[in-house]
Design goal:
- The complex is a heterodimer of chains A (328) and B (432).
- Chain A has 2 domains: 1-67, no CATH class; 70-327, Phosphatase 2c, domain 1 (4-Layer Sandwich).
- Helix content of chain A is 27%, strand content 23%.
- Chain A is built from 8 helices and 12 strands.
- In chain A, the strands form 2 sheets. Chain A has a 6-stranded antiparallel β-sheet.
- In chain A, helix 2 packs antiparallel against helix 3 (149-165) and helix 7 (285-293) crosses helix 8.
- Chain B has 3 domains: 3-45 and 229-335, Immunoglobulin-like; 50-224, Rossmann fold; 339-421, Four Helix Bundle (Hemerythrin (Met), subunit A), CATH 1.20.120.
- Chain B is of the alpha/beta class and 432 residues long.
- In chain B, a hairpin with a 2-residue loop joins strand 15 and strand 16 (313-327).
- In chain B, the strands form 4 sheets. In chain B, strands 6-5-4-7-8-9 form a 6-stranded mixed β-sheet, with helices on both faces. In chain B, strands 1-3-14-11-12 form a 5-stranded antiparallel β-sheet, with helices on one face.
- Chain B is 32% helix and 32% strand.
- The chains are: A alpha+beta (328), B alpha/beta (432).
- Chain A binds chain B through residues 15-16, 18, 21, 46, 56, 58-59, 61-65, 67, 91-94, 96, 117-118, 172-175, 238, 318, and chain B through 7-13, 237-241, 268, 290-302, 320-321, 323, 325-329, 331-332, 337.
């Protein structure tokens, strides 16, 4: 049997390639992933199953952890003005970013979470975070109420934190408890409320101006804010972008959110929320804004989100990439 | 009834492209009858019956003080046995003579054994294969017990070819465990180690004949402390994985890699023999080579458990998982777990001692100095008992640098003690 991935001839009984490790029983491209997703007890890695995945989520044949391949690429378009994409990128094995968007008479909400890779079940942590935040905001989006957007975002962050804490922890494994970043953006009329923990970001783009609205909870920002060293010096440290706050994670680590409320100026504007898989390739607001503006005038929110995600993939896609766009 | 609990220590994080996972499994066995999930993991009685074979060298060289002390020690050993234990006594020379056939340790049989042992004389050669085969015949009479042999010799196995001993060991493997003891310094540690290693036993020197009795007492007490035999360490690995090594690393260093039993129907499962267990703690170090995954990918690189075999019935207990997670964060993947580092050092220590002593014997002083220096360097911070033994063989100039001088006036028994006890490891210090 010839391995469909690397072309090396394999012994007949082999179920995966001895040379490159690819599955021999499932097609090398997306087809295998799709069929594996259809049966959650079959293994998307080696093709074993059904029933190959044990109760603990690991394949009883190849040992690989079950992966939800349906999250490799998620595109959500609520309207031509509101859309987002979450993409696995090129280097990572699974998508640990999560995205949720909702729109209605009460405004729009965009939520991005980025599971922290070194923690346990980071993909479940990010999914739990966005889902809980979305549920917390859904009522206010469906039916405008007197509640302040600021308080709604606070409640959404609280719900997300509780949900991340509720993600199952595998006992006896040498890794931190589930951990995720979060950024929530809620727009109602001209008012925008942002809330975040960690280094997922929100940007605000006008035809002639662009700003990063969030301030990362990262080592570089904390150390520069303390006045001990300059930004240039701090950026040289390998710790520079290390998270200092997140939802979940080790006991006693900070989960304190930051919030920011502002009004949009008259005229067209655009909000972008994203994970670091995007902004690592677009270091400042101007370069990100230029990419959003470079699209044709008729381009909708999904097309603009796609432009951002594809840019990060073209540059190497080292991390999972998530971007959501609201055009006002 | 014996209960087992286990814990796996490892750094699960691997750098991109890395394919070797290390883990240390710490097993604690005890007699907790109430332990959950272990209802079927025992005989229903206090434990299995001990079946003991006492094999003593009666060749010509044993004449005098040695045989006198041996007679006394054998009698004391039989005295120590519980009434429900079974025993036999084999007098070894050019053949293995059954001095006392397998009998229950009743008052009458103890007395009969004492009388038989009184006539234990010393003459003839040393053919250990025949001794072991005689023991095997006796053990086969009681297939269900905990089979243990104690073998005492003072000389080299000379009456037979090396292949004869190896063939006998292959026959005996899996049927009984054997602790080997050398009295004096005319025996060969490498040869006795062959026996103790194949038969999952300990090896030690008894420098003076008047210490035989005390040593036999320790061996018999330890054998009586065992409550379950035929325990295997079971290692499941992913399809295509290779077990680089599997070793017992505490309380002794012992390589099990090539001892795996594999049922061709379940090629992903390897069963390593671990012998009989009482109340004790053991650590096993294993390294598994797997196909590297992508960053963020997690894999179950192994499932390790203990399997108790009783009359064809298997009971699997204390299963733990060995994980692999690939990361691009070097600060995570570069860490070596302290237990893995410690036991890697203990194995290097034993190897350095054994090879260093061999080089010394062959007159290669430069190599001996270098190897024993390295041993000192490791032992100084990790194994005080071995350090004491090393100091009798080398003069330590700088333990941190591992600079030593070979001693000129080394007693043979100190050299043997260092050699035979080189495999004794110190337990890793747990963070408190």
């Amino acid at each position: 049997m010839i391995c469909p991935s690397c072309g090396v001839d394999q012994i007949n009984e082999a179920r995966f390639c001895e040379d490159c490790g690819s599955s021999l029983s499932a097609p090398a491209s997306g087809g295998g992933a799709a069929s594996a997703a259809a049966d959650p007890t079959a293994c998307s890695q080696c093709g074993a199953g059904p029933g190959a995945i044990g109760a603990d989520g690991f394949c009883t044949t190849c040992g690989h952890e079950r992966v939800d391949t349906s999250r490799n690429r998620v595109e959500i378009a609520i309207s031509p003005q509101l859309a987002g994409i979450s993409d696995i990128g090129l280097k990572h094995f699974r998508n640990e970013d999560a995205l949720a968007i909702v729109g209605g008479p009460g405004g729009e909400a965009l939520v991005v979470c980025d599971g922290v890779s070194r923690s346990q079940n980071p993909d479940m942590a990010s999914a739990a975070g966005v889902n809980a935040a979305l549920e917390a905001l859904r009522g206010a989006i469906a039916c405008p109420s007197a509640n302040h957007t600021h308080d709604l975002v606070t409640a959404a962050l609280d719900a997300a934190r509780n949900a991340v804490h509720a993600v199952p922890v595998v006992q006896g494994v040498d890794a931190d408890p589930p951990e995720s970043t979060i950024v929530v953006a809620l727009r109602r009329g001209r008012g925008v409320s942002l809330g975040w923990v960690g280094d997922s970001r929100a940007y605000f783009i006008l035809p002639d101006d662009a700003r990063q609205c969030t301030v990362d909870h990262s080592w570089v920002n904390e150390v520069v804010a303390s006045g001990k060293i300059s930004l240039a010096e701090a950026l040289l440290s390998p710790l520079a972008h290390a998270l200092t706050r997140s939802l979940g994670g080790p006991p006693n680590s900070s989960e304190e959110p930051s919030q920011l409320d502002f009004d949009l100026p008259p005229g067209p504007s655009c909000l972008v929320v994203c994970s670091d898989g995007l902004w690592n390739y677009l270091p400042d607001a101007a370069s990100l804004a230029a990419l959003v503006r470079a699209q044709p005038a008729e381009a909708d929110a999904l097309a603009r989100a796609r432009a951002l995600v594809e840019f990060a993939r073209d540059r190497g896609g080292r991390d999972n990439i998530t971007a959501a766009v609201l055009m006002v | 009834m014996t209960s087992f609990s286990a814990q796996v220590a490892q750094n699960q994080f691997l750098a991109q492209g890395a394919d070797l996972v290390h883990a240390v499994m710490s097993v604690t066995s005890g007699s907790a009858t109430a332990a959950a999930g272990l209802a079927s993991a025992g005989t229903g009685k206090a434990g299995q019956t001990l079946v003991e074979a006492i094999i003593v060298d009666c060749s010509g060289s044993m004449d005098g003080e040695k045989i006198v002390q041996t007679r006394q020690a054998v009698n004391k050993a039989i005295d120590l046995l519980r009434d429900d234990a079974w025993f036999c006594v084999i007098a070894g020379s050019a053949a293995g003579k059954l001095l006392m056939p397998l009998s229950q340790a009743t008052a009458k049989n103890r007395l009969a054994a004492e009388q038989a042992v009184r006539h234990l004389g010393a003459s003839g050669g040393t053919a250990m294969a025949t001794w072991l085969r005689t023991a095997l015949v006796e053990f086969r009479k009681m297939p269900d017990g905990i089979h243990h042999a104690l073998l005492l010799t003072d000389g080299k196995d000379e009456g037979e070819r090396e292949s004869t001993l190896e063939a006998a060991l292959a026959e005996c493997e899996g049927h009984f465990q054997c602790d080997a003891r050398g009295v004096g310094t005319d025996w060969e540690p490498a040869q006795l180690r062959k026996i103790s290693a194949k038969l999952l036993g300990t090896l030690d020197i008894i420098p003076n004949p008047n210490e035989i009795e005390a040593d036999f007492r320790r061996v018999i007490e330890s054998a009586m402390g065992k409550s379950v035999s035929n325990v295997s360490l079971r290692l499941w690995t992913p399809l295509g994985a290779k077990v680089e090594f599997c070793r017992l690393v505490y309380p002794e260093q012992f390589d099990l890699t090539n001892r795996a039993v594999v049922d061709p129907k379940t090629p992903q499962i390897r069963d390593y023999p671990t012998g009989a267990w009482g109340e004790e703690k053991r650590d096993y170090h294993m390294a598994i080579r797997i196909t590297p995954g992508k960053v963020g990918q997690r894999m179950c690189a192994g499932r390790v458990s203990l399997v108790i075999n009783e009359r064809g019935q298997e009971t699997k207990v204390a299963e733990s998982m060995i994980l692999a997670t690939w990361t691009d964060d070097e600060s995570q993947s570069a860490l070596i777990h302290p237990a893995v580092a410690h036991y890697t050092g203990q194995v290097e220590l034993a190897t350095a001692i054994q090879q260093g002593l061999k080089a010394r014997e062959q007159g290669d002083e430069a190599r001996a100095t270098q190897l024993l220096g390295r041993a000192v360097q490791i032992a100084a911070t990790s194994n005080p008992d071995t350090m004491k033994l090393l100091r009798k063989v080398v003069e330590v100039e700088d333990e941190r640098q591992g600079t030593v001088k070979l001693r000129r006036d080394v007693k043979k028994e100190d050299e043997f003690a260092l050699d035979t006890r080189s495999t004794k490891t110190a337990r890793v210090q747990r963070p408190t």
